[in-house]
Automatic annotation (TrEMBL):
Keywords: Lyase. It comes from Paraburkholderia humisilvae. Belongs to the aldolase class II family. Residues 25-209 form the Class II aldolase/adducin N-terminal domain. Its EC number is 4.1.2.17. Signal peptide: none annotated. GO terms for cellular component: cytoskeleton. It is an enzyme of class 4 (lyase). GO terms for molecular function: actin filament binding; L-fuculose-phosphate aldolase activity. PANTHER family: ADDUCIN, PROTEIN HU-LI TAI SHAO. Pfam families: Aldolase_II. This is L-fuculose phosphate aldolase.
Length: 262
């Protein structure tokens, strides 16, 4: 039997500002929620959050940890070029970052200073819709929120920084992007906002696949109604996303396992 090595992460709380620590707690919660709602891919994918008050610094997961293991202290601080600025003294192993993570996330954080959080997933519904030529269809009220979603053509594993410009261009002013033949990406001015977008985008993909699987005629919605519904979801017509449900989601996590706060 293979002996399991001891693994622990000393607290980073005394090594960062109060604002950074709060961001760490919320980001760790976001990782746990993505896992809880079935959108994780073992140790792959990334969720990043800008460090408050630091123009060129964001937090991202340690490559090799499951989302269910992520804590506030386990997150690694890097700059937009992928240089590690600070990380915990892992006990029982050492972890760095995934190159594709900083290429994708660094591109958006660098180009869009108003964006605080970027979420990228490889969920099966997201990957399935990303491989459909029709992309995401506005079949449901939830999907109509993403009526003008962006698309980014697949160019291979995102390891080349030359792809950054096209990633940012294809995202545009949208808060969501479908990476064709790859997966999903959402952004937000806050962590709760980005998670709200990803949760709803995931539901949109699931409902589309379920409807298409019935092999019957799909019910279209008029162009006018699509436009009006899309506008009802835009920032200028409603309160910011995530405000109402985030405290409840944190309470949910605290009931299940509050270790994300460590």
């Amino acid at each position: 039997m293979t002996k399991q090595l001891e693994f622990s992460i000393p607290s980073m709380r005394e090594h960062c500002s109060q604002a950074e620590w709060q961001t760490r707690v919320d980001l760790a919660a976001c990782y746990r929620l993505v896992e809880l709602y079935g959108m994780s891919d073992m140790v792959a994918n990334h969720i990043s959050a800008r460090v408050p008050g630091e123009h060129d610094a964001f937090l991202i997961n340690a490559y090799g940890m499951l989302y269910e293991e992520i804590t506030a202290s386990s997150l690694i601080k890097i700059d937009n070029e992928g240089n590690i600025l600070s990380k915990p003294a892992f006990v029982g192993g050492d972890y760095g970052i995934n190159r594709a993570g900083y290429v994708i996330h660094g591109a958006i954080h660098d180009a869009k200073p108003d964006i605080s959080c970027v979420i990228h997933t490889h969920s099966w519904p997201g990957m399935a819709v990303s491989s459909l030529k029709c992309g995401l269809l506005p079949l449901t009220q939830t999907a109509m929120r993403f009526y003008k979603i962006g698309y980014h053509d697949y160019c291979g594993v995102v390891l080349d920084t030359s792809e950054r410009e096209s990633l940012v261009r294809d995202l545009g002013d949208n808060n969501a992007l479908i990476l064709r033949n790859h997966g999903l990406l959402t952004v937000g001015k806050t962590i709760p906002e980005a998670f709200n977008a990803m949760h709803r985008l995931e539901l949109s993909c699931k409902s589309q696949l379920a409807a298409m699987a019935c092999h019957v005629e799909l019910n279209p919605v008029s162009q006018q109604v699509l436009e009006e519904t899309y506008m009802n979801y835009q920032p200028q017509t409603r309160r910011p996303y995530g405000l109402m449900e985030w405290p409840a989601l944190l309470r949910k996590l605290d009931r299940i396992d509050p270790s994300y706060r460590d």
